Amino acid sequence: MSHLNYRTLLGSCYQMVDVGDEINANYIAFSKKVSVSITSNIADFQGNKKLVESYARIAAINALKLDIVEPHFPQGAAHFFFEAHNDALISHVNASFGSWRSALQALRSFMENTMAAIYYLDHPVEFVKWSAGDFRMSPKEMREYISEHPKLDKLAKELDLKAALDNEYGTLSKAVHGSNMMFRMTTADGKTNIANPSLADLGKWSARERSAVDISITSLVGVLSDHLDGAKMQNLRAALSIAIQSNARAALKKHLDVSIHAP
Predict the structure, then answer these.
(1) Which residue in 87, 183, 234, 244 has a CA-CA distance of 20 to 30 Å to 14?
(2) 229 inside domain
(3) pLDDT per residue as tens digits for the range 28-84
(4) 224-241, pLDDT tens digit by residue?
């Protein structure tokens, strides 16, 4: 059996198609219209408190990445969290111009990649197998693993972590699959709708982002509590205050001696 190198394969798959002058002109006009619309939407939302708070949560995720994940995680697990950080940023950017379904889809990816970072931090052998295509854990199995993690035992019981993970992941999955009318972007008459700068929709997305970040980062902080307990990493703990809600902050202090004060 002969083997095609990747250049030959790409060349055969991506031959340029002559789309015609009319389609080309329509594409240029469409691109300009979309660019103007997105710029206008961003201007409408600029300075909105919910987006400012979202940016602060992303900054907290970045601080966790820089202070603990980069210096202490094995490369494979670290890259899952790098991708989670990027997912959170993509969600924020999409929300900033009103592309709600895409923003929610990125939030679900943020949860998935944070859970994977936790799992592969504990299982380097499975990461090697995953890299070779010989191992896979479903999102459901990831959620079960985290809710039963020995470091999170008491925390998980107090916060009902399994139900919280399941409920938030399930809600975001409806956006991914378009299985709920509230997450659809198109109009009733079938018109496409790339973005809609609705303050009501911004509020709904903000609630989902706050919840997804809270659950995911609380789980990760619990697993990493040996780096954060007592007086350790005061600046990082201060940065995390915006990302973790009051009930989770209290549970982290009670069960793992991680003190994160209110923002």
Answers:
(1) 87
(2) yes
(3) 888 888 888 889 889 989 999 999 999 999 999 999 999 999 999 999 999 999 999
(4) 999 999 999 999 999 999
The count of residues in the chain is 263
Residue 11 lies in a domain: no
Does this model's pTM top 0.70?
yes
| 9 within some domain | no
Domain that holds residue 68: 48-256
First to last CA, the chain: 63
What is the C-alpha to C-alpha distance for residues 101 and 117, in angstroms, rounded to an integer? 25
Asked if residue 121 lies in contact with residue 221, where contact means CB atoms within 8 angstroms, the answer is no
Our count of domains for the chain comes to: 1
- Whether the CB-CB separation of 252 and 218 falls below 8 Å is answered with yes
Q: Please report whether residue 104 resides in a domain.
A: yes
What are the contacts of 236-242 at 24+ separation with CB within 8 A?
236/63, 236/64, 236/67, 236/68, 237/261, 239/59, 239/60, 239/63, 239/64, 240/60, 240/63, 240/64, 241/60, 242/53, 242/56, 242/57, 242/60
At 146, list the tokens: 């985290």
Based on its alpha-carbon atoms, the radius of gyration of the chain, rounded to whole angstroms, reads 21
Q: Please give the mean pLDDT across all residues of the chain.
A: 89
What's the pLDDT at 187? Answer: 64
- Taking alpha carbons only, the member of 169, 49, 165 closest to residue 107 is 169
Q: With beta carbons less than 8 A apart as the criterion, state whether 162 and 156 touch.
A: yes
